[in-house]
Amino acid sequence: MKTIKNQVAVEATIAERVWTAAFGSLMAAVAVCFPRRDSRMLGRAMTQGMLMELERRNCWTLTEALGHDGPHRLQHFLSRGAWNHDLARDRLAAWVAAELADNEAVLIADETGDEKSSTDCVGASHQYSGALGGVGLCQVAVHLTYTSPRGHTLIDRELCLPAAWAEDEERRLLRHVPDEVTFATKPQLAAAMLHRARGLGLPARRFTGDEVYGSLELRRTARTLGFDYALAVRADHRASTAVGRLSATELAAKVPARAWMRRRTGNGTKGDRHYDWALIDVLADDAPAGRGEAGHAFLVVRRHRYTRELSFYRCHSTTPVSLAVLVNIICTRWKTEEDFQGAKGLAGLDQGQVTCWTSWMRWSLISLFAAAVLAVTHAATRTVDGTEHGLQLAPASGRELLAVLRITALPTPRRDLEHALHRSVWRRHHRHQATEAHRRWNNITAAATT
């Protein structure tokens, strides 16, 4: 037991050093995006604040933890501060790719929803979200994940602006939605992020996503940009083969029993997960204009061992590729779910009480800063296999790593009595002012209706 504790203590020391170096490296990479020293220091403090031990993360709780008198500095920083969040987004993506670069890196597109209580928040409407488990009042954003054998984290995001929002000039004006922002589907938002990734020269060869992103338009965009892909498609997706044009379900029914291959696709709390897989050659339908049919197109079928439920994936590779490689690419898609959980649970991605376009863009970006530094630190410090040292010790999770960093590297939230009393007075005074304002407004509207 003493040997295990010593090993954990060594890991904690290494984690502190790696975090300090990674955080300093990222802040140096994005420093040019902040023309003023005060905004640069505020961005640095807010990134650290996102990872502090707080029940909730918003401008009120962060400023209290950072020792500010009120939330005005952070609110101004998010809404009107003079700094380039688009350039900072690109610098973040380039920094992550440099830290986690690998020839087998994969980009993953996926969306997530954040529940809201009012349609006043930009983009909030009654829409479907897998995170909510159905239709609800929420904001939905498409994210791009960079994943390699060295690690993975979110690097980009685009807020979905529903058609009703995009067409409502009054709401756009109130929430400061830029004129160039129009309604776009989730695949179109993913395509925009792929264009940015390719423009930045990120070392990534492949692209994957669920059924939402298996459209012909996005697959053609991926090929145009030089990405191989493995994208989920629906059961009624039709593909052309040497024997005719058939649906995915019809093609799966024609696979001989001996052609199925059982492969391990990960592990869970109950052990390894295995599925049956089949590879079917199909004809490419997404060749970019003027590029012909170069490459190899496949339909990959996954079958549950017991329920026989089928899933389908449309794949393309510029070079010959095995089923094992395609299965590995498809299975990396679940990395983005881990990143959503980490960014929300540890870095406050879904907790920002912001209502305007720029504020949302900046809050989400600062959250991605925090999540990215934590992911890079985790990738550099995790124990790949505890048995290498003869120890019965599983690798530390991101949450366990953060618990150590909160003690060794991150600032401690301010909790002295003088500051707490000042904050209490400030909150109660502004609550009183808000109550009086509502009372006066109710009196005015009541008199107008009589």
TrEMBL record:
This protein's UniProt keywords: Membrane, Transmembrane, Transmembrane helix
Q: Which InterPro entries match?
A: IS701-like (IPR039365), IS701-like_DDE_dom (IPR038721), RNaseH-like_sf (IPR012337)
Q: Which Pfam families match?
A: DDE_5
User: Which residue ranges run through the membrane?
Assistant: 18-34
Say if the entry is tagged with keyword Cell membrane.
no
PANTHER family tied to this protein: TRANSPOSASE
The protein's name in its UniProt record: Transposase
Source species: Streptomyces zinciresistens K42
